[in-house]
UniProtKB/TrEMBL annotation:
Transmembrane segments: none annotated. InterPro entries: Actin, ATPase_NBD. CDD domains: ASKHA_NBD_Arp4_ACTL6-like. It comes from the Eukaryota. This is Actin-like protein 6B.
Amino acid sequence: MSGGVYGGDEVGAIIFDVGHQSLRVGYGGEDCPKAEIPTSLGVWEDALDNADQTNPQSSKKHYNIDVTAIQVRRKDMEIVSMVKDGMIEDWDMFEHLAEYTYKQRLHALSEHHPILMSECPWNTRPKREKLLELMFEKFNVPAMYICKNAVLAAYANGRSTAMVVDSGATHTSAVPVHDGYVITQGIVKSPLGGDFITMQCRQFFEEKNIELTPACLISSKDVVRERDPPRWTKKPGLQPTSSWLNYMVREVLQDFQMNCLQVADNPYDEDAANALPMKHFEFPTGYNDDYGAIRLMIPEALFDPSNVKGVGTSILGVGPLVTTSVGMCDMDIRPSLYGSVVVTGGNSCLQGFSDRLNRDLASKTPPSMRLKIISANSLNERRFGAWIGGSILSSLGSFQQMWLSRHEYEESGKIILDRCT
């Protein structure tokens, strides 16, 4: 395909970066995504008017998509995630989400823009084929390319060879990238991520009998003194499903995470934690308090899971993930991996994350190796690392011949996927 078709200024590529928490989407060449849409959708069913009650097909599924629609309470609406283990699981939901994205958020026609999709390094061949088929046959995109999110995160930080440490909602992974290719045998994953931190926060507040009520269920509240019981009134309305309630409570907890939690410079020490300044936090109900040592204790699990109840000794902290992954790669490329440890993902926005990783790795890196942690200064660059890499890649002139065109797809079928390594 000639670079002129899609490489011109007139038609920009659209970058889709699918994560467990959200879909980041926007135009190639821009600094940040145009929209960030939750990958959890509100799902509810309506019985059709002339329906045969014995026929399970007689009800129609509806989807509430995006932040505002999800917050609308419905008696029978469940919140369902379309992503599992970093891979798209529910294709019907993905199709609805993509349609919504084109029409409501990008205001673009899918047949006018080539798309670059990110995928997790362990994505399976059948899922990649399904994605190719959906985008070409349902959305009629003119061209597309699928690229590993770790490779894109490395590109976003100006590296083609790097050790990408991605700490997201469901897991933390160390993925070695060499010359733009993922070294599959070196990938190491840990199931500790943002959701685990949220669960730890929830347990802490439940033990303290602090009520976790989302703002959308509160009609009014009074100002109360620190640590006084909250005084608030509930909004009248339908009783929501437990999955909806859990999703909304999770948002309150994530707000607490981003505002209060901090990673300690050294392994957790209660005396040092108590010496740190406390942080004030107010819940939607009006209850407010200052938090001290707990701010460091909860995120410590990411780096040292050995002290956490219910976590097996086989689960590695972030530092050992990196050293294990490097150890599984060829001797020749180990120096370049240690010299470019790229930190990305939502958890990397926790204050002190990169500094602690640097400290943990410095004591384990062989003396002959030079260690360098690469962590973008702005939080958005860390959260949207893979998207930004896609934005850079799609606007490079040298990339334009890499697109898989619809013409090639119609001619050769799914075998063209072999070009997306």
